[in-house]
Design brief:
The chain is of the alpha+beta class and about 325 residues long. The protein has one domain: L-amino peptidase D-ALA esterase/amidase, CATH 3.60.70.12. About 25% of the residues lie in helices and about 30% in strands. Strands 1-12-13-16-18-4 form a six-stranded mixed beta sheet. A five-stranded mixed beta sheet has the order 2-3-6-9-5. Strand 14 and strand 15 form a beta hairpin. Helix 1 crosses helix 2. The chain is globular and about 60 Å long.
Length: about 325
């Protein structure tokens, strides 16, 4: 097994658009061929679009683009711009002379940083898809990860910056990669040794505090819907929709390895799983590998999004 670039998996391109004053943005994965997709939603407050398409009860269809954005439910407006771009390029589900782009989307809540009145919209969704021609999987404070943060039990004042991260590997002919936006309520840990790498800080912001212990001691009610870790695992493996849903469900273990607490009523944790190739493989092996790359992508999202204390504090809403 060796590491590869996320974009080497094939079958899609990555684009970004963002507003650094408002601290929000959109990341678009634009698919250039047939694919099979599944989903796993474990958080209690997801902001999502077209989720039912991934159900085994739905008619399986290739997705045209997947958007990961900020803006909470307001950010779902970005999908309209994505659809316009894709329609212009004749990409989507064809019905005679009509093309309907299939664009699922998930959003993080980033309204507590930057301007809460500026959210991903039509223009930002369009620009993110247009940027996919550059096919740059850039980690950190970019695209949908621009306004991501972690450790928010006591609000933004004791939180830390996070962002978007990527990781991909190749095992024989099988390629597996992950993209994730880490905007969790909880603390973030290195899955390899359990060391905390980001999350809740003490009141003076000089040391880490344990969010789990604070939760027990304070008996504080979690604010619903203000956090979310969203992402996708992409593979060149050949799997059915049911198998992709199972792979997405297995990948959820990465969240448990790396984030604590996770999947709360205040999180909208969602994982997509998309197959873009024809490499034959065992879905249990693929799910285990997907969990590994998502764990690594979570670390990348935190390490790549570092921001100076003064700049971060100037951007958070009191």
């Amino acid at each position: 097994m060796h590491r590869i670039e996320f974009t080497q998996i094939g079958g899609f391109k990555v684009g970004n658009a963002q507003n650094y004053d408002a601290m929000t943005g959109v990341t678009a994965l634009v698919f250039d061929g047939p694919n099979v997709a599944g989903i796993d939603i474990s958080g209690g407050g997801p902001a999502a679009r077209e989720s039912f398409l991934f159900s085994p009860l739905a008619n399986p269809q290739s997705i045209t683009a997947l958007l990961l954005s900020g803006g909470s439910a307001y950010g779902l407006a970005a999908s309209a711009g994505a659809m316009a771009y894709l329609e212009e390029h004749n990409m989507g589900y064809h019905l005679g002379d009509i093309v309907v782009p299939i664009v699922p989307q998930s959003c993080i809540f980033d309204l507590g940083i930057g301007s809460s009145s500026v959210r991903p919209d039509f223009d930002m969704g369009y620009k993110a898809c247009a940027d996919s021609v550059n096919n740059r999987a850039v980690s950190g404070n970019i695209g949908g990860g621009t306004g991501a943060s972690v450790g928010k039990l006591y609000g933004m004042s004791r939180s830390q910056k996070a962002g978007i991260g990527y990781y991909a590997v190749q095992l024989g002919e099988l390629k597996m990669g992950a993209v994730v936006i880490v905007n969790a309520l909880g603390d973030i840990f290195d899955y390899r040794n359990g060391t905390k790498v980001a999350g809740l800080l003490t009141a003076d912001r000089k040391e880490f505090a344990s969010l789990e212990e604070e939760l027990y001691c304070a008996q504080k009610k979690i604010t619903a819907g203000t956090n979310t870790t969203i992402g996708a695992v992409i593979t060149n493996g050949d799997f059915t929709q049911q198998q992709m849903c199972k792979i997405a469900a297995m990948t959820r273990s990465a969240l448990g390895r790396s984030i604590n607490p996770v999947g709360t009523s205040g999180d909208g944790d969602t994982i997509y799983a998309v197959s873009t190739g024809n490499v034959k493989s065992n879905p249990d092996l693929a799910g285990t590998l997907a969990c590994r790359v998502l764990s690594e992508a979570i670390l990348d999202a935190v390490k790549s999004a570092k921001m100076e204390e003064s700049e971060y504090l100037s951007k958070i809403r009191k």
